[in-house]
Each structure stands twice: as structure tokens, then as C-alpha cells.
# Entry
Amino acid sequence: MNSLKPVDATRSRGRVAPELHPVSRTPEEWKSILEGMGERSFRAKQIFQWIHRGGVLDAEAMTDLSKELRHKLNDAGLSTPAEVAEVQRSADGTRKLLLRLTDGYSVECVLIPMTRDTDEAEEDDEEGSLSGQQRVTLCISTQVGCAMGCVFCASGKAGLKRALGAAEIVSQVLIAKKYLEPGETLRNLVFMGMGEPLHHYEETVRSIRLITHADGIAMSPRRITVSTVGLVPGIRKLGQDFAGKLGLAISLHAPDNETRSSILPMNERYPLSELMAALREYPLPPRRRITIEYTLLQGSNDSAEHALRLVKLLRGLRCKVNLIPMNPIDASDLQPPSEEVVERFRGILAEHRVSCSVRKRRGDDVDAACGQLALKQPLVRLRRGDDVPA
Ligand code: SAH
# Structure
């Protein structure tokens, strides 16, 4: 039963063994553990449902289990891998949850009510409208800090502290659901918080399998979007593993290698030719598009020439472009372009029939906007003895 104890993540800078935390177990894994304990295997589904559907981690509250099994589960340490340390609410309704992990690190997730003017237009309308319900998007993190080093991103500036285990990723959803307000429904999940989801591919994929499991949160993969800086092998594998059903967002940010490498160091490893080949081969279902994220940085990637090169690069790719005027961060002097320059860029794309929108800033009064999920507070709370990020 020792194996049910939460992993001591402090020992692990890179991987956190997922099978060691009960929240990261699939029903099948629960089954073999229970059988090893001499328990009936159908209990596996019950326990999984309590945790993932009910958000319950107190075994005493699992009322359909025997007293004996409840005690065994409690003794084995059925504890939460993350606890809410702070909640901040923005004037626009965005809620940022600061979660403390068992080893002292913190990460954040952000609940973002969707607005009619922007997000609804991007929604596919296969399911009709959810009458009277306010749809909410949840943005979650996959790492404490990030190793990708993108020059305009606060998480990148912090450097990688460690990967999150699948239990810690799933827990963000379980916890955030408790912060939905009456009339709100969790509609979309985006892996766009701190960290690079495809850097620790196995943890991310395990978390998605848990989140989409019919006995758990049961979220449709079509409502989940994984955003990546462009780790090509991971993109290819994700396409295969989920048959293209997962939403894919690519942080492109530049239409040529020279510009892109100056912003995203990872471009040296996976240059545009390789990335674009992987995108063209991604098994997109009909009517679905890849999201191309393009953060506009004044004087770096925002010229008319860049826009025209982008049009050319994306030709023939089923995609929509999301322009994000950079959110300024303390750790960088880079700035967003003026509104006129943003509009010129958007206009050039539109003129060439590239589908495109300008992302609205949400929650920036609580530093929940893109790239601000770290540092200021500092939100990557450092444990004693850690270096303070530059
Ligand atoms: N590692 C993933 C998720 C990162 S965050 C990725 O690279 O896609 C999600 C998006 O926010 C990315 O497109 C990222 O480039 C962008 N972003 C990061 N910092 C930003 C900032 N300061 N202003 C605007 N967008 C930013």
C-alpha cells in the first residue's frame, strides 16, 4: 500500500512518476491495486468516480465503500496533490487560482468566462447553444516554470523548476470546477498556462486520458486544446495518439527562421520547415482548424512584410490565426505594437483571406493574461534555497 502515497516530488527535477499518485490512476490501474489488496475489482470504478467525477479525496466521504476499505485508503494517504493558496478575481470575471503543491512550489490555473464577441465566434456550433449557461474556459499549467526560454514569456524567464505529474495537472481541473459560479459551465480546457505541455509528453497525455475518461470529468477531446511552442515529435505523436481529435495550437510568432529563432530558442531545434510539415500532416478532422498563435512584438515580428510572409507560409493549411498583442512583463523590455500596427497586421491577413482574430486581454489586472503566470508575485513561488529567477 505504500505505493499509494503521494510521490516526493522534491527529488524529481524532471519526471514525476505518475503511477505513484492516486489521482493519476486510471480505473484499470486501481483495479490491479485493489485486487492486490484482496478487494473486489468493481470498487475501482467507484473510487475513480468519487475522485474524478465528484472531486472527493476524503475516503471517509466515499459512502458506498466498506468502512474497512475507506480506512485502508485513508491510511495509504489519499491526499490532494494541490491546495488553493489564493484566489484573485479580475474585474472582467476572470479568476486566477494559485495552487500550492506538496513540495512547496506553486502553479496557477485561470477560469475565463467566454465573451460573445470573440470566443463565441470561434466556437463550433455542432452542439447548439447551452441555453442560459455562461461558458467558461479553464487555462491550466503543465510545469513549474518552463525550459523553452521564449523571450517575451514570464514563465520562460523563470526557467524550469520541474514538471507537473498528471495528478497535479488533473487536480487543477477538479479544483477549478469548484470555483465555477452558479449558471457557469466548464466548456473548454486549454493547456496554455505555465510550461510546455509536450516537453513532458507522457504526463500531459496521461492527464488528458484521465480528464476525458467517461467515468470521470468526461470532457470531450474536441474541447481540449494543447498549445505548444512547436516540439515536432510531440505534435506528431499527439496527432496519432488522439487521431487528431484534440485541438492543437501552435505558438508560431514569426514567419521566418531568422525572426523566429530570435524570439523562440526552440526554433533552432525544430525549424519552420519541420514544424510546418508536421502541421500539414496533423490528422485534422473535417471542419477543424489548427490555431496559430502569433504574439505581436513591437519592432520584431509586426511589420507588413512579416504579415505577407505569414500569409505565404500558411497557404493551404487549415488554420485560424490568433494575434496576441504582447502583454508586457517585468523581465523584458519588449512591448506590444500600437493599435494601428496591430490593425495593419490583421488587415493584411484578412485581405489575403487568412482567418484571424485579435485576442482580447483577459484578467490582466490580476496578472492572469498570457505570459504573466509567473514572476510578479513571484507566482512561481520559490522554495527556500532556490535561486531567484532573473
Ligand atoms: N508552452 C506553450 C504554452 C505557453 S502559453 C506554448 O508555447 O504554446 C500560451 C501562449 O501565450 C503562447 O502562445 C505564448 O507564446 C503566449 N505568451 C507567452 N507570454 C506572452 C506575453 N507576454 N504576451 C503575449 N503572449 C504571450
DSSP finds twelve helices and twelve strands in the chain. The pocket of S-adenosyl-L-homocysteine is lined by residues 148, 150, 152-153, 192, 196, 227-229, 251, 293, 295, 324, 326-327, 329, 370-371 (CB under 6 Å).
